[in-house]
Design goal:
The complex is a heterodimer. Chain A is mainly α. Helix content of chain A is 87%, strand content 0%. The N and C termini of chain A lie close together (9 Å). Chain B is an alpha/beta fold. In chain B, the strands form 2 sheets. Chain B has a 7-stranded mixed sheet with strand order 9-8-10-11-7-12-13, with helices on both faces. A 6-stranded antiparallel sheet of chain B has the order 3-2-1-6-5-4. Chain B starts with a helix and ends in a 6-residue tail after the last strand. Classes of the chains: A mainly alpha, B alpha/beta.
Chain lengths: 168, 306
């Protein structure tokens, strides 16, 4: 009976953990989008102040942030590829780690296609557009995290409890 | 294949790498000897690619000319996919590539609120291959020795004036008897600076002022670098003459080049008259127009010659 009780408790906890895991993914998505927002802020600063080429900016950022897996993947992909191609390759290889949705990836890829094609003023305008898109995505991701996150944890816990009760 | 020819062939191959794969693959059919003499690659929208050597030319993609999209892609690739980082060069109508090659860019000029000019709708690109001919100036330096006073090199476009100046810079600034040489390289043709590194061989005692307007660069060199020799390309504007005069007072020898089709045209040029009156140039070297740095004539420039 005690063993059965422990098993049921475990099942209930697993359900709760799954809910927390899903909520964690939503949180990670928000963090990733914020990371991209900060990345574009750094790109803006470099373009406005020194006019450094995109691949050089990315190389420098990758060195400064060795834990950033996207930048590491981008740095690797930049070798012999266009910035846009490398960006897409890096995103597709890290989208799982970054917990990004298909829409996020498509939006970020569209942002990358805007860069590198204009003079400094044009780049800054393109970065304004990117900033708007990212702000919207971050707001939407935060809202999803707030609403769906709570739902996931509640549903996970409830399912776990129901399953445990059924087993009992 | 000679070592120098081999080097030129490799440079040409690297440049054809900028072309779309469908066209760059076709360069494999060209003989290495022909490619090693490549002078220019001309890319025009809706036209085949033209590869020009000293004597003739070859077409790539006669039946499938370059599209606007391909020209744009080539242009962006040349800009390292960061057009804004080449804004200064583009405002003067050119781009510098790794290897010191210069690309003339044609498109629609637009001017922003701050008066800065930019290019859009790129319609054609002209890649001028920068080949090094080390020791090509040996004959000239021997004929003009001792080079204590100024030397002016004159000739038509593409006759090798810049190549000669580059080799003079190398020879004069290298052992066994080096002189302090400053190259004032306004358009990046002499040293071919790319991301801060010279793409051509320069001597031990050679400094490069890259991107400076020539007059300003000369004054800067005179005041801060104590040169024995100042070398610059295509000289003759008013501010440059004043700077040369200041340099002369410091005992500096000037070596420069000037465009002209023949000696009569040269003597009619107001820029040449101003240079002559400055007293900075005592020897005049006229080049043949065959693109091989061949000397046609060396003559003195007397102060009263006109």
């Amino acid at each position: 009976m005690r063993l059965k009780g422990i098993a049921c408790l475990l099942i209930a906890l697993i359900g709760c953990a799954m809910g927390l895991e899903y909520r964690g993914r939503l949180t990670a998505r928000v963090k990733s989008l914020i990371m991209f927002s900060l990345l574009f802020t750094e790109i803006r600063a470099s373009i406005a102040h020194s006019g450094t080429a995109l691949h050089e900016i990315m190389w420098e950022l990758a060195i400064c942030q060795p834990d950033n897996r996207f930048l590491a993947a981008l740095r690797e992909a930049l070798d012999g590829q266009s910035f846009c191609g490398a960006w897409q390759a890096a995103l597709s290889s890290t989208k799982g780690i970054l917990c990004l949705t298909t829409d996020d990836v498509a939006m970020l890829n569209r942002c990358a296609t805007l860069l590198g094609k204009n003079d400094v003023d044009g780049e800054l305008r393109a970065l304004d557009i990117i900033d708007d898109r990212l702000s919207q995505a971050i707001a939407e991701a935060r809202e999803k995290q707030r609403t769906d996150g709570t739902v996931y944890v509640a549903v996970g816990s409830a399912c776990g409890t129901v399953l445990a009760l059924l087993l009992l | 294949m000679l070592k120098e020819q081999e080097r030129h062939y490799q440079r040409a191959q690297k440049l054809t790498g900028y072309l779309p794969t469908r066209l760059s693959a076709k360069t494999a059919r060209l003989s290495p000897a022909w490619l090693s003499n490549l002078n220019e690659i001309r890319l025009r929208i809706h036209q085949p690619v033209v590869l020009m050597s000293d004597k003739d030319y070859r077409l790539l993609g006669e039946h499938t000319p370059l599209t606007g999209e391909e020209i744009r892609e080539i242009f962006e690739k040349m800009c390292d996919y960061s057009v804004y980082s080449r804004q200064n060069e583009l405002s003067r109508g050119y781009l510098l590539l790794q290897g010191g090659h210069r690309v003339g860019v044609c498109g629609t000029a637009t001017t922003d609120n701050s008066g800065r000019r930019t290019l859009r709708n790129i319609s054609s690109l002209n890649i001028r291959v920068a080949n090094e001919f080390i020791h090509c100036a040996d004959g000239l330096l021997q004929a003009c020795a001792p080079l204590e006073e100024g030397l002016l090199i004159a000739g038509p476009p593409c006759c090798g004036k810049t190549t000669l100046l580059r080799d003079i810079a190398l020879s004069l600034s290298s052992p066994p008897s080096p002189r302090k040489v400053v190259v004032v390289d306004e358009r990046g043709e002499l040293a071919g600076m790319y991301q801060g590194e010279p793409q051509h061989t320069l001597g031990l005692f050679c400094d490069v002022l890259n991107g400076y307007p020539k007059g300003e660069g000369i004054l800067n060199a005179v005041r801060t670098l104590s040169p024995d020799v100042i070398i610059c390309d295509e000289i003759g504007a008013g501010q440059e003459i004043d700077a040369i005069r200041e340099g002369l007072n410091s005992g500096i020898c000037f070596i420069a080049s000037i465009h002209c089709r023949n000696v009569d045209e040269l003597y009619r040029k107001p820029q040449f008259q101003k240079l002559r009156q400055s007293g900075a140039f005592h020897q005049l070297v006229l080049l043949k127009g065959d693109g091989r740095c061949a000397i046609d004539e060396i003559r003195q420039v007397p102060a009263d010659e006109a």
